[in-house]
Amino acid sequence: MADRPLLLSVSAAAERLGVHVGTVRRWTDDGRLPEVRTAGGHRRIPVEAVERLRRERGAPEPSAPAHVVADPEGQAWAEHAVVHTRYEVRSNADAPWNRAFEGADRSHRRETGRQLVGLLLRHVADQGDPEARDAEVRRLAWGYALDMKDRGLPLTEALRATLFFRDVLTESTAYYPRFEEQPQADQIALMRRVNGFMNDVQLTIASAYESDAPPALER
To answer: Has residue 27 been placed in a domain?
Structure first.
């Protein structure tokens, strides 16, 4: 059986190529980049094609690893979590931490969320360099915290948002159809890794509210 190609999400491909996500979508539409579609209709782009185009364009190597999807089972779990999260976010449209972002700001927040889910998937699967992965998590969480501060939201609301997402991720994992098929030890390990990821996000947000220094100076 041939090996499955490593695939990138549109946002990860855009990050690796140094272009906007809309540019990547246009390149797949006009055939410049090949694509495959998931069962849910999402675009996935072979990493080899992205790397070939990156070299042709002379784009620099990204500082952080791209969000490579090497585990189809893990990708299925991540997509399940994303769908559940989107539903719950829409159901909580009136929450202060949700109302604070509108228009382009909301799109930017969604992109940050997608990147965090990609990092969570890599964290759960223990993919890539752990230090680089954790540094990227802290960078994204730090930026999110500063966005919340700029909008005048107190730390309690920022933490309320992270608690909301922690609950959603916990429920998504528990409700995932294949979760109960795993040995109990693996179930517990998965929950611990999800919780450990969210712990890092919450502690970074709390640190960002206490100081405007870059996250690297807070470690």
So the answer is: yes
Cα torsion angle, 60, 133, 214, 204, sign: positive
Q: Which domain holds residue 143?
A: 72-218
Check whether residue 185 and residue 84 sit in a common domain.
yes
* Domain annotation covers residue 36: yes
Q: Compare 85 and 204 and report the one with higher pLDDT.
A: 204
> Residue 193, class by beta-carbon neighbours within 10 Å (0-12 exposed, 13-18 middle, 19+ buried)?
middle
Same-domain check for residues 19 and 98: no
Residue 119 belongs to domain with CATH number: 1.10.490.70
Query: Rounded CA gap, 111 and 106, in Å?
Result: 9
Please tell me the distance from the alpha carbon of residue 151 to that of residue 126, in angstroms, as a whole number: 35
Residues 77 and 48 in one domain: no
CA 178 – CA 76 distance, rounded (Å): 10
Q: How far is CA 182 from CA 69, 114, 176, 178, 195, in A?
A: 20, 26, 11, 7, 18
Contacts of 185 (CB under 8 A, 6+ apart): none
Cβ 161 vs Cβ 116: under 8 Å: no
pLDDT tens digits for 40-57?
778 888 888 888 888 887
